[in-house]
Amino acid sequence: MSKNYDIKDTIISISSGFNKSAIAIIRMSGDDCFEIASKFIKPAKSFKNIKPDSALKLSVYDENDELIDRVIAIPYIEPKSYTGENMLEIFCHGSTYIVKKIINTAIKYSARQAYNGEFSFRAFLNGKIDLSQAEAINDLINSETKKQHEIAIRQLSGNIKSKISSIKENLIELLSEIEVRIDDNYEEMEKLDYDKFQKKLSNIINECEKFAKSFESGKYLKSGVKIAITGLPNSGKSSLLNTLVGYNRAIVSQKPGTTRDTIEETIEINGYKVIINDTAGINLASEDEIEKEGIERSRDAIKKADIIIFLIDISQKADIENEKIEREIIENKRSDSTLIKVFSKSDLKPKIEIPDNSLKISSLTNENIDRLKEIIISNIESKNFDSGEILTSIRHYKCLNESLVYLNETKKIIFSNQKEEIELIAENLRSALNSLVDIVGETTSEDILHKIFSDFCVGK
């Protein structure tokens, strides 16, 4: 690992965020944790014969023996701590001056400022968590919605590890069947039953493919579902955005073309993160350069959207432009995105014929807004969500796909009747295993570890 992550050092950092608050939490971890603490926290004897997990009322002094703060401190004896090392958590008043002063005093007595994610890195090194759980900690901290929180909690509880361990066990069993025959110089072992071997291999491949496929669902949970609101100018797009987000995010005017650029807002619907784009009205006949640029950005939003809401104003006479816009949407949308046609301004007298079973809404009276949300939720939940474990990490997804490459290559060798290449089969299975366990950090390179933990906040 990087020299910055020297595990021999005792490290210190704030864990509760550098904002003025009633209480702040400072964390210190390392073999010399209590010895260093005894040099500036009194009474020093508190760090002799420590009773683990006990709350101690103590006083913190600087190097000039001047009182900094009266604190509560909780000591943790290795290995029964978050990091697996001796660790001290100091609860002080949340003044930024007090926090900095305590940390700087500890540093003067030979502690070191922790780097991003260094506490979690030590927890990983000391076997307190695997790499997927470490990543789940970061996801938990960054969770914005109920669903993001739920999946992070499941992964932090070790669900990914359990899933990988199950596949790993079956893969090791296959590999051992091959390796024992490679070492069988005297041909004492019975010949490998390739039919049974192939069935076991196919089961592993199917399980990995199903797990990898869950990433399609997981990315919606983690990154959010993108919705583009489109339609003619003055069809009620900005009013719908404001209704969905719950406040006047966009300017609403009776004058067409008020929105000249896309306006993006993130909300939570039924626990899901939803990113809504209010796009510029699509006026295909416009010669205005600014409006044309806005329309081009609307096309781009349609291309990126998972769900497109096409608004048709019922208070306006039938317009051939709506048909052109619908064709424009169909031409630009992704094959896996959903188009929802919605008739807006239902509080006004209709001037067009509205097909039966059409969705009519009013952003003024909120008519059918809940129904629109239900349709959005139904579309989100149709993205292969199930009760099983879901991948949300692109790194995990890449590891699984890499493993599948080797597994499918093994299958190809067997099907092509090159069974004499038993060593090649073993090599592919070993590579598949290494890629698989990379998810939980058993074979992860130092560069990747550094990248993962450097994305953490400094106190975690």
Rg from alpha-carbon coordinates? 30 Å
- The low-confidence parts are 255-260
In whole angstroms, the N-to-C terminal distance is 18 Å
Summarize the helix and strand pattern as letters: EEHEEEEHEHHHHHHEHEEHEHEEHHHH
Strand content: 15-25%
**Into how many domains do the coordinates divide?**
3
CATH architecture annotation name of the largest domain: 3-Layer(aba) Sandwich
Main sheet: strand order:
3-4-5-6-2-1-7
Say how many strands there are. Answer: 13
CATH topology of the largest domain: Rossmann fold
* CATH class placement of the largest domain: Alpha Beta
Structural commentary:
The protein is α/β, with parallel strands linked by helices and 460 residues long. The protein has 3 domains: 3-130, Probable tRNA modification gtpase trme, domain 1 (Gyrase A, domain 2), CATH 3.30.1360; 136-214 and 391-440, Four Helix Bundle (Hemerythrin (Met), subunit A), CATH 1.20.120.430; 221-381, P-loop containing nucleotide triphosphate hydrolases (Rossmann fold), CATH 3.40.50.300. The chain has 15 helices and 13 strands. The protein has helices at 33-37, 96-108, 118-125, 131-142, 146-156, 159-182, 194-213, 215-223, 237-245, 289-304, 320-332, 369-381, 394-415, 422-437, 446-454; strands spanning 11-14, 21-29, 41-42, 56-61, 67-76, 87-94, 112-113, 225-231, 263-269, 272-278, 307-313, 338-344, 359-360. A hairpin with a 6-residue loop joins strand 1 (11-14) and strand 2. The chain starts with 10 loop residues before the first strand and ends in a 6-residue tail after the last helix. Mean pLDDT is 87; it is low at 255-260.
